[in-house]
Amino acid sequence: MKMKKMYYLSFLSLLLCATAFAQKVAFEEYDLSNGMHVILHKDNSAPVVTTSVMYHVGAKDENPERTGFAHFFEHLLFEGTENIERGEWFKIVSANGGTNNANTTQDRTYYYEVFPSNNLALGLWMESERLMHPIINQIGVDTQNEVVKEEKRLRVDNSPYGQWTGQVFANLFNEHPYRWMTIGSLDHLDAASLEEFQAFNKKFYVPNNAVLVVAGDFETENAKKLIEDYFGSIPRGEDVVRETLTEQPITSKIEVTYEDPNIQIPAVFTVYRTPSMTTRDARVLDMISTILSDGKSSRLYKKLVDDEKKAMQVAAFNYSLEDYGAYIVLALPLGDNTLDDLVDEMNEEIVKLQTELISEKELQKLRNKFENQFVNSNSSVEGIASSLATYYMLYDDINLINTEIDIYNSITREEIREIAKKYLNPEQSLVLDYLPKKDIE
User: Fold this and answer.
1) How far is the C-alpha of 205 from the C-alpha of 135, rounded, in Å?
2) Boundaries of each Peptidase M16 N-terminal domain copy (predicted)?
3) Same-domain check for residues 81 and 193
4) Distance of CA 341 to CAs 308, 332, 345, Å?
């Protein structure tokens, strides 16, 4: 029986190694003469292809008096081009068996299409049209202004807890443009002229501020020819120059109260400013989040939700960004438990991480979870395309798609303790009491 178990374990180890090896993502990269970076990932296992373009422009690149522009362009650049009539973009995609979408963060804007592989040329043409021939006119601006207003009403103004990110970042940052929400101010959008929108496009939507990724079923030489045909002649823009804004360290606790008319149950957020997503420290903080609140066996969940029944919900996560991050611990109280009680309980668990080494068993469990996440993130060409673009643009190291898991696996128990000490201290925190709005009699 013992010998059979040994054979089984040996087979399992080989299987895991084979799985990890199979997940290695091969890619090719090069630059066009206009400065656009191109990444190709060939995978002929299914007849689909993703074409995507990421632009290095997000909410942090906006004029403080014109916030919301980056997100607004995510909508505006589906309006139409010189060769795609207004309102036809989504019809063309769906009529050719495809899907598409876009999203914006504080750091970048990302557009993509997923087509049957025989429509690679169509996907590339459409993205080149978005870059080279967008029509930015008053009709489009007015139309998308209404769309963004409705989105803000639904997702922020009238959504329970919809204001928490805005309150956190507005109080965590004083100088850095992370201090405003990605959706921005509707008053700023209303006040902006057509010329301002056109100037924003001219500044940031240039090939030398973008990365194009083609991932999936294609023939390399054909893809390269199509890319050159559609993108090669687009003129290079002026280089985007960014000012680096440094925040002063937080040296005493910041206490803030916000009242939300859309909630009945209060919440408390304890937040710490943390370093760039590219740092090793940020990855250690990712692991700390998993220890504290990933799953029902995690420390905060087991203590506050299961055992003591003081919270109906609890979470801890590292909100990593290109320049800084925010480490966020939150809870919703159950019954008569106060927000102060929850903060004390959450701090107790953090102190344990700062003073006691996690067990070897916990460390191995952590590594297993991150291995699983790594495998899942590389399980589709759509996910791979997004990761390749992100690692190039925000990390300046595309091969992290294969090697970042090695960084996580090299993190030690001692590092977890030291990073918890370094960043997660009450005097370096923002405590946001997020309360139901009181009725005014």
Assistant:
1) 13
2) 38-170
3) yes
4) 12, 11, 6
